[in-house]
């Protein structure tokens, strides 16, 4: 059993910054990838950024150079630093953990990020 709890969402002005946090707890296997997906109304859920337990990172083209993903393995926590935010970044952001062996996925409840003046 794995639980993912997100925090840090809210309202921010265009050009502003925000940091999202996702803390994992439970029976967490060491080999995993954690990160963030997002979904806006009427859109498909899309990958934003992920980072493996080995430190490999992958970003969506739309956020490269603006977002930075990092993790603290000792705390089982992943962070998403979002800078230069744009209105099109507005979405529900969901934390995800994928166990490499077996391919099991876990999802957080989601946190709303709204970029508006």
Q: How would you sum up this structure, described in words?
A:
The structure is a single chain. The protein is an all-beta fold and 117 residues long. Helix content is 0%, strand content 56%. Strands 2, 4, 5, 6, 9, 10 and 11 form a seven-stranded mixed β-sheet that branches. Strands 1-3-8-7 form a four-stranded antiparallel β-sheet, with no helix packed on it. It is globular and about 40 Å long. It starts with a strand and ends with a strand.
Count the DSSP helices. 0
The low-pLDDT segments are none
User: What pattern of helices and strands is seen along the backbone?
Assistant: EEEEEEEEEEE
Computed CA radius of gyration, to the nearest angstrom: 14 Å
**What's the rounded overall pLDDT mean?**
96
Biggest sheet: strands, sense, closure?
7 strands, mixed
Secondary structural class: mainly beta
**Total beta-strand segments:** 11
What share of the residues lie within helices? Answer: under 10%
Strand content: over 45%
Estimate the global geometry from the Cα principal axes: globular
Q: Report how far apart the termini are.
A: 40 Å
């Amino acid at each position: 059993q794995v639980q993912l709890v997100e925090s840090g969402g809210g309202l921010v002005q265009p050009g502003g910054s925000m940091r999202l946090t996702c803390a994992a707890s439970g029976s967490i296997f060491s080999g995993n990838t954690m990160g963030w997906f997002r979904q806006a109304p009427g859109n498909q859920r899309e990958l934003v950024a992920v980072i493996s337990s080995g430190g490999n990172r992958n970003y969506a083209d739309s956020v490269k150079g603006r977002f930075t993903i990092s993790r603290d393995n000792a705390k089982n926590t992943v962070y998403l630093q979002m800078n230069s935010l744009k209105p099109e970044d507005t979405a529900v952001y969901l934390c995800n953990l994928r166990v490499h062996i077996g391919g099991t996925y876990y999802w957080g409840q989601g946190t709303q990020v709204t970029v508006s003046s």
